[in-house]
Amino acid sequence: MTDLRFAIRQLLKNPGFTAVAVLTLALGIGANTAIFGQINELLLRPLPVKDPADLLGVVLVDQTGDFASQNIPYPIYRDYSEQSAGVFKSLAAYATVFISAEIAGEPRFSVGQLATANYFSTLGVVPALGRFFLADDDRVAEQSAVVVLSHACWRNWFKADPAVIGKTLALRPAFVEPLTCTIVGVAPANFSGLEQPSPQFWIPAVMEEHFKRATSVNFRMVGRLTPGMTRRRAAAAMDVVAAAVSMKHGGRVIPGYQNEGIFRSDLRTELRPAALGTWGAFRPLATLRMARLLALGAAALVLLIACANIANLLLARAERRRKETAIRLSLGASRGRILRLLLTESLLLSLVGGAVGLLVAQWSHHLLMTLKPGDVDLLVSARIDLRATSFSFLIALISGLVIGSIPAWRGSRQDPNFALKGHAVGGPAHGLRLNDWFASAQIARSLVFLIAAGM
After folding, report:
1. pLDDT in tens, 310-344
2. Are residues 16 and 134 in the same domain?
3. Does residue 187 form part of some domain?
4. Which residue from 87, 162, 321, 436 has the highest number of Cβ atoms inside 10 Å of its Cβ?
């Protein structure tokens, strides 16, 4: 506690140095926190469903082991559901469709999802208003004109009207007659589907009949395993199911589903978490992996440049405090105490930089979301949660140790007799070489970063 109070006094006595150091570290830590926030949102953050780690997507992969494009129409899902009863205690499906909706006579482009009757019960989601789909809603297309609104849609389109249940929503699929759907429920505020783009409403899966004439309808299958079933055994069992489904249709187009093409038999099954992050289980991982490495590499370079800059400043500051350190050593302070004192100062500096870095990360993300064009859906709305906050302060602690270790080590090992006479630690040439090395490393990393950014 004494060391901490002394470190605070030292930083307050030098407000110019402290401000420059904190802002420099905040930029480096903030960049890394912002990138981690995106990765957290895409791959790590549990979605608001029951037991998110247990919700698995049935993913078909090619020879490279990555996601393969395989259109799965509603009849294929039914085949899977019938033949995988011993593998999944519940297997649901959903498909994203883009459709025009009419609100108060005004057409609006919207994102909807076809969903099976057991979709919400499989996810373990409870409606905020009304109800979700019943089994009867998913049997006959002509009798299934019901819709469940997302909470955002209910709030934006219907002004959060508590009497919205029973009202109608007009949908206009291409090449077919408009659909007038009765609103039966509103999803909870924290639930916006399993992947982006987030749907504004859900309609029964059997209503794909109204969409397949214009475009292919690609269902995603998600489920929960039966008790005692391992993921590896389930994947092997689903390979058998896929082979049986392929044999049933014999390499022929399913009548009425020409847009979906032939169900491929050369793919194997992989079960991936479907509720960890909004990237979803049904997207290629190779593209995301490359983007993640590039982003983390760029952010790490920024942090290294910041750390080298602060370490250089601390080295220069340590030179000015040599006599103070020598007096402490002469009065009986141990080298370990001096080392701890200087490290406490650098760690405090980095923790303050980490706190400001959190603000920088949040501010930079809000700025990007504000500046992006309205038709671009590439930026993810990340949030600073406990995981991102912990990551930020872990980076801050590591940065504090990195930037403070060399100045603290040099300060604790100096000879007090030489320091009191005005000689540098290890001689002037040694200190000059070390500072020059830091400056050269900063220039080299900055050059690499600028070239990479230009490319």
Report:
1. 777 777 776 666 666 666 656 556 666 667 777 78
2. no
3. yes
4. 87
